[in-house]
Write a structure and sequence with these properties.
- This protein is mostly helical.
- The chain has one domain.
- Helix content is 82%, strand content 0%.
- The protein contains eight helices and no strands.
- It is elongated and about 70 Å long.
- The relative contact order is 0.18.
């Protein structure tokens, strides 16, 4: 059993091994099925969360701008801050909590029931058969979830702006989209790929290591995957924002 203190230090080495496993060609059928499964299960969570987040951002922006007579400009803040930062971050967090926990528990259950050892006894590589398809699924689902988060967040802002704040629909959409450029969408998709990779690596790593045995180990792996995945998602978003937008400061 690996000491708990040393577990996070082994994550970079595992990420390199998992990336190399992808280059060795994981099973195509399993990969396609996992990609579709991750997307279909994560999208509803992302859409619901970001819809209400966009609505809340609009209300808060309107409350701050109303004393200055700039109520109609609330969509500008939502479009600017939401698309660049908030919606991709929430998409990554939702992916970590929904998919990360599932992947970690699946792999840990396979290890507890010695299915992984059975593959190794047959001369098969669990990284190629089990880890690589799940990592690819997260990398593909990442930008899809981020794009859906942007759209649903903007729709949420428009709905609350029109029906609660009384802002004209055309004016609301104009201010929402005025702060969003093609570059912001590209950056969001890049963030989605990075966040998907981070979530996939963390989830697969937590599911692959042997820290505890039995059902308790399965639950502990899922918990670690969510906690550590969300922490690394936040750090990744901060690092990417500083790298991409920091040059304009």
């Amino acid at each position: 059993m690996i000491p708990q203190v040393l577990l996070p230090l082994m994550l970079p080495a595992f990420a390199l091994r998992a990336t190399a496993a992808i280059l060795r060609g994981p099973p195509l059928k399993d990969t396609v099925l996992l990609v579709s499964r991750v997307i279909l299960r994560s999208l509803p969570v992302v859409v619901i969360i970001c819809f209400f987040c966009g609505a809340m951002l609009t209300v808060q922006a309107a409350a701050s701008l109303a004393p200055f007579g700039a109520l109609r400009m609330s969509g500008l803040i939502v479009g600017f801050g939401g698309v660049r930062e908030v919606f991709p971050l929430l998409a990554g967090g939702a992916l970590a909590s929904r998919t990360g926990a599932e992947i970690a528990s699946q792999l840990q259950a396979m290890r507890v029931t010695r299915q992984v050892e059975a593959l190794e006894m047959m001369g098969l590589d669990p990284l190629v058969l089990l880890v690589a398809p799940r990592l690819i699924a997260c990398v593909v689902a990442g930008p899809v979830c981020v794009f859906a988060a942007m759209v649903s967040g903007l729709v949420g802002g428009q709905v609350i702006g029109q029906f609660q704040l009384g802002i004209d629909r055309s004016a609301m959409w104009a201010t929402l989209l005025s702060a969003v450029g093609v570059g912001d969408l590209v950056v969001g998709l890049i963030k989605g790929v990075v966040l998907g990779f981070v979530v996939g690596v963390v989830a697969c790593y937590e599911g692959s290591i042997v820290a505890e045995g039995g059902a308790r180990g399965v639950g502990a792996a899922a918990n670690r995957a969510v906690v550590r995945g969300m922490v690394l998602v936040c750090l990744s978003c901060l690092g990417l924002s500083a790298l991409i937008y920091g040059r304009f400061l």
